[in-house]
Amino acid sequence: MSAVNTPTDIIGNETTGPDTAGTGATAESASSVTAAEEIEAGVHAAADRARIAARRLARANRAWKDLGLQEIGRNLVAKRDLVLAANAKDVAAGKKKGTSEALLDRLTLTPERIDGLAGALEMLAGLPDPVGSVARGQTLPNGLRLRQVHVPLGVVAAIYEARPNVTVDIAGLALKSGNAVLLRGGSAAENTNAVLVDIIRDSLDAVGLPADAVQSVDEYGRAGANVLMKARGKVDVLIPRGGRDLIQTVVANAAVPVIETGEGNVHIYLDHSAPVEMAVDILLNAKTQRPSVCNTVETLLVHRDAAATGDVLAALAAAGVRLHADERVRAMLPAGVDAQAADDEDWGREYMDLDLAVAMVDDMDEALAHIRRWTTGHTEAIITNDLANAERFIAEIDSAAVIVNASTRFTDGGELGLGAEVGISTQKMHARGPMGLRELTTTKWIVQGDGQIRI
C-alpha cells in the first residue's frame, strides 16, 4: 500500500490526552485536547443531524426516494466537468506522492465512469424498495397478527480509501433503503469527494429530501475517523472498504458494530476437464479486465492433468501478467513464458495488479486444502466440465461467492442485479457477499391485536 493511502492516512492514531506525569499539562497539550474535543463535537453533531435525517427518510415513499436518485444522476452528468477537474487534482497529487498504479486506477474518474455511476443510480431507482417488505408473518391462534418487516438500519458510517465511486454508490443505496450516511473518504480523494457530496446534498435538497442524509466528516481528518469508530449510540453500523490494513484496523478499534468488507485473495481452480477456450477466456477476463479491484483472480490452481494449463499461462503472459509459480508449474511453462518462484507470501497476497500466483495440485482435495488455508472468504471459482466436481466445489467452499465456469469479476452488486453495492461482505452475520439494498436494512416485529393479554 502506498504512502498516500495507508490506514494512518484514513484513520490515524488515537488522540492522546494531556501529559500529567510531570508538573502539569502544557499549553500545547491543553490546546491539543481542545482541538480533539472540537472534532468530537463536530462529528457527533453531524451524527445527530444524520439521525434526524434518517427519521425523515424512513417516512419517505419509494417514488420520493427514486426522484432523489434520478436527480443525483442527472446532476452528476450535468456537472461532470466539475467532478473531473476535482478528480484531476487528486490524481495529480497521488502521482506526485508515488501512489501505485492500482490505487490510481481506483482513484480515477472518467466521463464513462461518471456515466456508469449515473446509470447505477437509475438502476437503483428501478429496483423494489426493501423498506416495509414483509419477511414473514402469521396470525396466531389467539388472534394476534404478526409481521416481520424490513426497516432501515438508521445511521450508516463508511470509511474508505481513494474510491470516489463509493461516495456515490453508498449515498444512493442509503437513500433508497432509507438510511442516512456519514462518509470518511480519505485525503487521497478529498477534492473529488467534496464535489460529489455537494452535488448529492444539493440534489436531495432540490427534491425536498433532507440534505443531511449524506454528510462527509473528511474536514475532521484522521481524528474524525477515530471519533466515528467510537460513536456508539450515534452510529448504528460502520462499513470499512479498502485494503486489509484499513479493514483490520477498523475491526480491531471500532466501538460501533462493523460489517467487515474483506480483501479478495480470489482463487480459480482449473480442473482436469476444463475446456481450453473457456479457461483462457475466463482467466484473461478475471485477471486483466480490471486488476485493481477485489474480485480479480489472484491465485490460479491447476490440476496436474489439465489440458488447458499451457494455453492459459501463454495467454496470460502475452497479456502482460507476471506469473509467480511453484516449482512444478515452472517446470512445464510453455516456450517463451517466464515465471518468478512463488512462496507463502504470494499465496496469501492480494496483488491488485497484473500479477498472478500459480500452483499445481494433484487433485481436488489438494486444491480445496490450498483454498481453505489461504482464502479471505471473498470469491472462489472452478472451471470444469465435470458436474460432480462442480457440485463438490460448491458444497465445500466456504466463501461469500462460489462461481462455476464464469469470471470472478461477476462478484459485483451491479453485475448481480443489485444496482450497486456498499462493498463485498466476507463475514457471516447479517450480510454476506455484495451488499445491496436489502443488506442495508434490519427487521422489526409488528404485533397487532384486539385487546389480547398473556395468560
Automatic annotation (TrEMBL):
Lineage top rank: taxon: Bacteria
Free-text function comment from the UniProt entry: Catalyzes the NADPH-dependent reduction of L-glutamate 5-phosphate into L-glutamate 5-semialdehyde and phosphate. The product spontaneously undergoes cyclization to form 1-pyrroline-5-carboxylate.
Pathway this chain belongs to: Amino-acid biosynthesis; L-proline biosynthesis; L-glutamate 5-semialdehyde from L-glutamate: step 2/2
Low complexity bias spans: 15-31
Official protein name in the record: Gamma-glutamyl phosphate reductase
Keyword Metal-binding: no
Pfam families referenced in this protein's UniProt entry, alphabetically: Aldedh (PF00171)
Record-linked InterPro entries: Ald_DH/histidinol_DH (IPR016161), Ald_DH_C (IPR016163), Ald_DH_N (IPR016162), Aldehyde_DH_dom (IPR015590), G-glutamylP_reductase_CS (IPR020593), Glu-5-SA_DH (IPR012134), GPR_dom (IPR000965)
An example Gene Ontology molecular-function term: glutamate-5-semialdehyde dehydrogenase activity
Annotated catalysed reactions: L-glutamate 5-semialdehyde + phosphate + NADP(+) = L-glutamyl 5-phosphate + NADPH + H(+)
EC number from the UniProt entry: 1.2.1.41
This protein's UniProt keywords: Amino-acid biosynthesis, Cytoplasm, NADP, Oxidoreductase, Proline biosynthesis
Organism: Arthrobacter gengyunqii
Region ranges (Disordered): 1-31
Span of domain Aldehyde dehydrogenase: 39-319
Family: Belongs to the gamma-glutamyl phosphate reductase family.
Organism taxonomic ancestry: Bacteria, Bacillati, Actinomycetota, Actinomycetes, Micrococcales
Compartment(s) where it occurs, according to its Swiss-Prot or TrEMBL record: Cytoplasm
